[in-house]
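Sample entry (347 residues):
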Amino acid sequence: MNMYVLKKNCKTSLLLALAAVLVLVGTRTVYASSLPAKPSMSLGNIKSECITQHPSGTMVVRSENGAKITHPDGSTFDVADKTDCQKVAMEKSKEPLATTQCPPLHWEYLNAQTWFPPAVVGSFTANYTVPPTPDIVGEQSLFYWIGLDSDYGVIQPVLAFSDGGWKFASFIVANNNIHMSSYIDVKPNDVIQAAIKKVPGENSQYQITASSSGQSSNLNVDIQGHAMPWAMNVLESWFLQSCNELSEGPMLFSNIEMKDVAGQVLSPQWTPFTTLVNKNLCKSTMTVNNNGIAVTKPAYIGLEAGPIWDNSDARNKCPSTCGRACLQWSGQWRTTEPGKQSVCGCN
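Predicted structure, serialized as tokens:
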């Protein structure tokens, strides 16, 4: 999720594009299916060969065209970046919905709060409160995360809704490829812990940790001297077909704490980041308050449809009213000015 580069180029959104398949061990070519078995997690419609998953405790050292991997058992191998994962995802994201003039919901940053710290970040931690399951469970993938980003890539503990359930894992994304740790199953209302910490005595190493109920899953990354100047809180979506495939929330980032490498507390001045966020058709919000940062989505969006006289009239008018806004009618409507104005509930 290399957002720093995309920000500089003013492109529309960042891609959770995914990791390499080919692994070189000595002079022998080995494919991902030949590696030691790892917990699997799909990411919606993303091709499985674009995902490289590792056991907790793995070290990832990035290079220009891939990464050197060291697993906790001491085994090492190189993973070459798969160059067509971004192309595959970009093409998928452009598939039209039923209304061709509507932008796709498939892939976009729905909400983001960002800050450029004045010093090198030594630690960035937060609790996540797992939100309710979406009303509609399809092939969507949702991602809530804190992260540090740069021209190198992004490091992030990610709460993901995928394969019909909530999962928590550590992610490293660079050059449009992703490496992720084994995941922890979590459920709505769980309060889980996310941490990104610089390894003491190591100039370029960070540890990303996802923890819940005594379990933890982490990845270590050597950023090879790159700065990580951009701190973020994000809700990201992939392959949405309906706003009802988002959780209404609230999802809460709480107990957010950031320190520099000397242990001094940094006080983030979070600001909404909209340059990379596509039009948020679902009207989800990310609100900074005294308790942290809350992410919510309205049950439905009210759009004016002129006078609606009864349920039959609503069935005639509301689908097209919602469709013009690239939304679907929820079946709800109400009169706001008798004989003059009614609103349709869209999502």
